[in-house]
Amino acid sequence: MAFDIRSMLSFFIINFYDGSNHNRMTALLKSILEKCLDKTTNTYTFVQDTFDRLIGLEFNTSSLLTTYLKVIPTSNYKDGVMTVTVPELINNQEFIFPKETSSCIITIGTESYELREKRRTRGYKSYSFEVDCQQPLIESKSFEFEVPDGCLCIVGITIQYYLTDRYGTNRVNSKTLNPSGICGAILTPGEFKEEQGLYWTTIEELPRIKK
What we know:
Blueprint: H1 2-8, H2 10-13, H3 21-36, E1 37-38, E2 43-44, H4 65-68, E3 74-78, E4 81-86, E5 89-90, E6 103-114, E7 119-121, E8 125-132, E9 137-138, E10 141-146, E11 152-165, E12 168-171, E13 180-187, E14 200-202
């Protein structure tokens, strides 16, 4: 399951994750699932906040999201809609630009995972916005995502930093600079219906990403 979720969130992780990423996610999911297992019937019981311990999971401990984004966006679910809110941030205090970077693009997106048959949405939904290192204040923003019933809906966030000089604008993210992680994880109520306007695929159909 950890491998599947990493594959789902590959856009946010890219190839700039730390070596312990898989093990950390595996250990966390194992702990979550063990608490939901009825060993007498060998069945799991889940509720809406079963997976909320995924919130705050970092993809790269060498470049913590919380080092650059001091206040993590919040995620709330209501009536089929996941609302993600980025709070107002004071630049260079609550949001940090690394040296020799001039702008960044923050991307927030969702993927959904249907646990029973291991199906997932193929093609994440996302919103992106740009931040300039010179702007004093980053205004609060809210984004709404329609999410399917009966699924684990995960919200990922990544910050892509850029340097603009006489040679142009280039992304500078690397193994030591790739703040990204999970800021929402909600199991939506209701029964899963594959025809909810999304393209679904089984995890086994997807190409495996390299460790």
